[in-house]
Amino acid sequence: MTTVVFSYVLYLLLSVLLTAWVGRMLTRHGRVYLAEVFRGDERLAAALNQLLVIGFYLVNLGFIALWLHIDQRVVDVRGVFETLSLKLGIVLLVIGALHMVNLWIFARIRHNALLRTQLTGSPRQTG
User: Fold this and answer.
1) How confident is the model at residue 124 (pLDDT cuts 50, 70, 90)?
2) What is the pLDDT of residues 24-40, one digit of tens each?
3) Are 13 and 88 in contact (CB under 8 A)?
4) Which residues cross the membrane (predicted)?
5) Fewest Cβ atoms nearer than 10 Å: which of 10, 44, 64, 83?
6) Does some domain include residue 127?
7) Can you state the angle between helices 42-66 and 3-37, rounded to 10 degrees?
8) Is 97 inside any structural domain?
9) Does residue 125 fall inside a structural domain?
10) Does 67 map to a domain?
11) Which residues contact 93 (CB under 8 A, 6 or more apart)?
């Protein structure tokens, strides 16, 4: 197996495993967070949690596939590690950035729901 093929295999293996691990954590802990954001509507929280996790997997696996190509020549073990660190680092930064954007959005939703509760005395808007 050439060093380039070895780099591809390691990159795919590690990035898919990291994506699966993060996805499991998001599913488990996101359920609790979304249940708080959408107080009183557990079905909505559970459904949205699943949709977000599916989107997470699609975006990340798509990015991993697009980022697979290696431009530089990998000729030794040092090149394998340098290529993997660059590629995995960027994948992790993208996953982290998407996660922070999601958290910010749901924090705003929760904040608005709390304001609505304070103003109307009801956690859900009727109408």
Assistant:
1) low
2) 998 888 888 888 887 77
3) no
4) 6-23, 44-68, 88-107
5) 44
6) no
7) 160
8) yes
9) no
10) yes
11) none
DSSP symbols for 11-63: HHHHHHHHHHHHHHHHHHHHHHHHHHHTTT-HHHHHHHHHHHHHHHHHHHHHH
Enter the tokens of residue 101. 């954007």
Beta carbons of 80 and 46 less than 8 angstroms apart: no
Model pTM above 0.85: no
User: Is the separation of the CB atoms in 18 and 94 below 8 Å?
Assistant: no
Parent domain of 51? 3-120
Contact 23, 56 (CB under 8 A): yes
| CA neighbor of 46 nearest in space, from 96, 22, 37, 116 | 37
- pLDDT attached to residue 126: 44
Tokens for 97, please give them.
């950035």
Domain count of the fold of the chain: 1
Percentage of the chain with pLDDT > 70? Answer: 95
Q: How far apart are CA 12 and CA 17, in angstroms?
A: 8
CA end-to-end span of the chain, whole Å?
A: 64
